[in-house]
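Q&A log
Question type: sequence-to-structure
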Amino acid sequence: MCWKGTLIPRINEKRSAMLGMTCGAIGYAGLAFASHGWMMYAWLAAWLGAGMVYPSLNSIMSGQVPANAQGELQGAVGSLFSLASVIGPPLMTHLFGMFSAGAFSIHLPGAAFLCSALLVVIGAGLVVRAVRHGAKIPHAHPAETVSSTGG
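Response status: OK
Response body:
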């Protein structure tokens, strides 16, 4: 879905980020407790709203960083995405294994989805805090050239 050109401009970035995170958390929680195959499709439909999160947060972050630091911002976001892509699969696989193999008294194969919902809720709290306390940074002046006089 193309959220960037349709819904996000209508309701603004902050609201669309929170709406997307809410859809993501609800979708993940629903997936955790789905007991039939058709339920997976229903919860995935609810989860689709999470597609608004990245473009919304990207827009919010870009507005809080000076023009001459946009590359650093995008590099940092890419690095965090890569880190999550490395840590996430083993963590979620471990949770699935622990909660479905009987290692705990609770048999919950959807524990990884519950963990995902919890992480989304924590992320939403961080976004609320950052947006509430984050002031827009004035446009930075181009870096001054320092001349070396050799000596």
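Response note: The radius of gyration is 20 Å.
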